[in-house]
Structure formats: C-alpha cells, structure tokens
Amino acid sequence: MIYKYMNKTNMKHFLTILLILCIFISYSSFVFASDDSLYVWSSTNVSNIEEDNALLTNATSEVTDNNSLNLESASAILIEQSSGRILYAHNIHEQLRPASVTKVMSILLIMEALDSGKISLTDEVPCSENAASMGGSQIWLDTTETLTVDEMLKAICVNSANDCVVAMAEYIAGSEEAFVQMMNDKAYELGMSDTTFKNCHGLDEDGHVTSSYDIAVMSRELLTKYPEITNYTTIWMDTLRDGETRAF
User: Fold this and answer.
1) Annotated active-site residue in 43, 106, 160, 212
2) Where in the chain are all domains bearing CATH 3.40.710.10?
3) E strand or H helix at 48, and its extent?
C-alpha cells in the first residue's frame, strides 16, 4: 500500500488504488522468489527476509527511513498487504492531517457493524440536521429522506460523501461524538499511536491527525478482513435515489 500526503487529498478510489498496488507488489519485479527464500525490494537495498503474519513488524528495525525516491510528499509508505512488510518508508510516523482518508476508519467501523449484525445493508438510515450541514464533498442529503446502508456506503466510497458518513456515524453510535470515540478506540486497538480522530469525515480540525504508517495499518485491516468493500471502491459510476443521476 502507498499513501502520500498532499495539500488536497482525494478519497475517490483511494482503496481501489491501495488494492491494485498491493496486487502489483505481490506479483511484480519488486518481489522475487528464489528457492525457498523471499526477496523484497526496500528503500536502500534488496535483502532476504522471512515472511510472517505480524503487522508492519519491520517498522523501526529493518527499514531505513529516507527519501531515496525523491518524493515531494511529506510522508510515504509502501507495504505488502498479505504479510504487512514495509517495503518503503519516508517519514512514516509524521503526524499530518489525513483529510478524507479519515473515512477509511469510518468505513472499517461500518463493515464491523455489518459483520456483527448490528446493522444490515437494507437498513434505512435517516439524515439529521447535523449530517445535512457538513459541506465539503457530499450528495446533498436532505433531512426528509433516508438511504439504505448499501446506498450510504456507495456514496461514501465513490463520492467521499461527508453527509452520508455522519449519518452512518449517528445511526451506528447514536451521535457523531460517540462514533469518533469508537474510531479512536479502534485506532488504539490497532496500535495506531500517531492518530487522533476529531471527526468521522476528515474536514480540517485542530488535533485531527494521523500518519502514513497508521493509514497503512487501518487500510490493511479493512482490505484483509472485509475484501468485499472493493464491491464499492471499484465502482466507477452509479446512481442513487431511484435512478436520479449523480455526479460521483
């Protein structure tokens, strides 16, 4: 997985790009199989490592943190999805504003709620005044309408809809504040020590920070445990509201 911080972050197809890169790394010239050994390209050299199931275990001990690729981004990380090995690292623990990539954690919690049976894809989710007032990227939800969880996920993954993610947060946790606490609890559980969430959508807010390392951790968790999320993140164009066309 690779993530680069820029001044403006576009959530559209972010998880799709992550998945494609993970597949690419798994089958490209960056990973070599020879005899019984696995060779992985890193930022400094090619070294022999043993594949394991630990999450990003070589974060401090095996990967040299430098900008050997001369990236213009403030931070970048490249990992192999199945093993969690870090292949490239550049300022991976620097705390920066994640913008709409925040929604990766929101989506992870939505998928967990679906998996546990707390909610279902056919549930009708209302829109509060708070959700409708979000601004930024949105689908202009109205307080008089409801969408299914399936439709909400589609709008969040394809259009990075702030109004929809807040509506889902309120539906799952009772309030956006309670949902954000769930996000921070999950970040702690996953060992995301560089992260503090202040909201579920990613609009700039003081103290709302994460790192490229932590984004790799939560993205890998989402793609590994809930690969069906790609049914949404690979959508190129679709419609909502009984066929009314929306510019996703």
Assistant:
1) 160
2) 99-245
3) strand 46-49
Identified catalytic residue from 42, 83, 103, 211: 103
Interval 204-241: pLDDT, tens:
999 999 999 999 999 999 999 999 999 999 998 888 88
The parts of the chain modelled with pLDDT lower than 70 are: 1-64, 243-248
The Cα–Cα gap between 69 and 36 comes to 30
Beta strands at 37-41 and 124-126: parallel, antiparallel or unpaired: unpaired
pTM, full prediction: 0.76
Distances (CA, A) of 216 to 55, 86, 169, 224: 10, 10, 22, 12
Residue 28 to residue 13: CA distance in whole angstroms: 22
160 tagged catalytic: yes
With contact defined as beta carbons under 8 Å apart, do 131 and 144 qualify? no
103 among known catalytic residues = yes
Question: What's the CATH number of domain 99-245, 3.30.460.80, 3.90.550.10, 3.40.710.10, 3.10.180.10?
Answer: 3.40.710.10
> How does strand 2-4 pair with strand 37-41?
unpaired
Mark whether 175 is an active-site residue: no
Summarised one tens digit per residue, pLDDT across range 118-128 is 999 999 999 99
Q: Which of 100, 106, 211, 219 is catalytic?
A: 100
Q: What is the pLDDT of residue 66?
A: 74
Distance CA 101, CA 105 (A): 8
Q: DSSP class of residue 96? A: B
Tell me the pLDDT tens digit for each residue of 171-184.
999 999 999 999 99
